[in-house]
Specification:
By secondary structure, the protein is mainly α. It is built from two helices and no strands. The chain has a domain of 29 residues.
């Protein structure tokens, strides 16, 4: 029986230093976090939720669900 030698290559998925990664992510998102919180608070004040009645399984069976894929998108002049 012939013995083969293997050479260890580079790791495809190297180990992450979790604390370092979390710190970098926090730095990236900390600037936008304040803006998002302020916008969320403004939007929550204007939202009213209407609760609908539950439907039966027979009514759910009548629903036709479709799936689509977004091929492209553009920013319009009146969008936020």
């Amino acid at each position: 029986m012939k013995i083969q030698k293997f050479i260890k290559g580079n790791s495809l998925f190297p180990r992450l230093e979790v604390e370092k990664e979390v710190e970098e992510l926090n730095e990236l998102f900390s600037e936008k976090e304040d803006e998002v919180v302020e916008e969320t608070i403004e939007h929550k004040e204007n939202i009213t939720i209407e609760h609908k009645e539950n439907i039966t399984i027979d009514e759910l069976d009548k629903v036709e669900l479709r799936v689509g894929k977004v091929l492209s998108c553009e920013k319009t002049s009146k969008s936020r």
